[in-house]
Amino acid sequence: MTEPILLTPGPLTTAAQTKAAMLADWGSWDGAFNALTASVCRDLVAIVDAAEDHVCVPLQGSGTFAVEAALGTLVPKNGKVLVPDNGSYCKRIVRILGYLGREAVVLAHGEQEPADPTRIDAALAADRAITHVAQVHCETGTGILNPLREIAAAVAGRGRGLIVDAMSSYGAIPIDARTLRFDALIAASGKCLEGVPGMGFVIARRALLERGGGNSHSLAMDLVDQWQYLEKCGQWRFTPPTHVVAALRAAIDQFQLQGGRAARLARYTENCAALVCGMRALGLRTFLPDDLQAPIIVTFHSPPDPAYDFHEFYRRVRDRGFILYPGKLTAVDTFRVGCIGAIGVDTMKRAVAAIADALHEMGVRRLGPE
Ligand SMILES: *Cc1c(COP(=O)(O)O)cnc(C)c1O
Known about the structure:
It is built from 12 helices and 14 strands. With about 375 residues, the protein is an alpha/beta fold. Pyridoxal-5'-phosphate (PLP) binds near residues 62, 63, 64 and 168.
């Protein structure tokens, strides 16, 4: 069986070496595994140019677990969080805050509108009770890139804490902890690092964790407790995702050999350009203008033809070896195609050809407005 190519931004297509790294079993008490965890954490801190001031706290689970853990650990029970909202992952943060019983203030934006640093600054000036801003960097729901540098400057200027969901940008889009001030930056194993899913991590300011815990509603989600235990004995508190960590080690090795973050961004940028260029040549339209588009995932308008049906389209493209993603917008009918994973321009071109064939076979003739 040949596996389909995953054009979904996590899980995504991984390299053979990354998969091969999962063929061994590791003892969670063993020194070799502790060394593996330590080396992964060290590299994860270095990828965003963070050094002594920051630590990496890994956490079992998907990315959302790490987002929830970061909010629960770092926002005090009487804290208040501003959430600039331009998509589904921003809305997920608001839901998490609701579960955690933390007050949230939503700063609504359109889904084609980047989060606005001026409005964020004004919201912080107007409400001194806001303690933190929770910002999604690349909003994977649409693929829009939010201006993190300007937002971080506004938040720092007002003396508030910044918690960044950098899940789909970490490892590709530049983030420099030396010049960009944040309390916590959250990402996971199975996105731009091209590992397998199963481990999230939080790059947090050391001083905040050293203050101690007391905020977290949950033992399993308490990052202070997780960090203290790792510091003390080099081990995860509870059963670690051993194979995921081993695969991530292999994925980071390849990331470094291929030229690190800049090279990864360059490859994804080429993938995205090949995809968008090919799809536009077919007559399909992107949801976002090019200057707001991150080269991570692209949202396309569904063809306005009565013969189009997403499930049928999905099945036919899958038969040709590619897995697409449904749209995540409520107002407009869309589908999404990821540009990340261990894939290159050739794969993107073959995906466009598969999409063209599938639409043709379905009798979809109108791909965009006349
Ligand atoms: C993938 C992702 C998450 C986490 O989603 P999980 O399904 O829990 O892995 C969170 N935020 C963003 C922006 C993401 O892209």
